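User: Here's a chain of 305 residues. Predict its fold as tokens.
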Amino acid sequence: MVLDQPLRSFFMQLAKSKPLNKAAKKWGLKFGARQFVAGQTLEEAMATVIDLNNKGLVCTLDHLGEFVTEEQEALDSTEACLDVLRAINETGADCNLSVKLTQLGLDIDEAFCLENMKRVVQTARSFGIFVRIDMEDYAHCQQTLRILEKLRNEYDGVGTVIQAYLHRAEEDVRSLKGVPLRLVKGAYKESAEVALQEKALIDENYFNIIRLHLDNGSYTAIASHDHHIIEKVKTYAAEKGIPKSQFEFQMLYGFRETLQKELLEQGYKVRLYVPFGTDWFGYFMRRLAERPQNIAFALRGFFSK
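Assistant: Prediction complete.
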């Protein structure tokens, strides 16, 4: 179940509000955000990751932030990513790094962003840590793929995300054969010109690109809380003889814990996307936009203060 379009649009607009994002940095984790955000500091996030590892789950850490327009902020964000990599290495945690290119200066200058990403990738390579470039809105899609290609010329331990609701998704998956991809349905509000609008069509294309990447022999991360999709993937992999080592299921921190446990017991790898930091508001608003159940969490968080 998804929100009615007007309400979903409302939350998506809130996610882009710079004044609200700025204010949220001062609020601390409010309105139930702590349900989905693993603290504001790296120390809090690492403690969460270690706890999840002890339960059999692997992780990817995301230092929250996006749409940065000041060079110094982008440089600070780059340093924060390096700190995450060092912390993962020092603790021995089973954890990757996820990063948004707009946080590292993509909206300032593509070459500047690339240099920042090269610093991240070079450090990750020295520690043997995989880096996932998150896919953002459609306006940044081609730039993201262009930077990915340049980075993979130096280090193959970097991948990205493909969003099934985009008309270009199948073509992109075909062109990225052999690249570890996280496949998602898509969380940004996009026009019908570039993206599918009907849930049934999005679901159909999502399973299509999952099959395509698996059939290509490529490592595939199926990032979904949709148990129908998950069951279809499990059945397809079994029928085609695709080993469990070729794919993993990914979920967001704070969601579907019972389903996570079931998948672990069945021998599947489950990775949680663990966000942290003070710049949590946009991420949280998109989670509210995705599922009406999340609003109940937010209201409980609001009225418990």
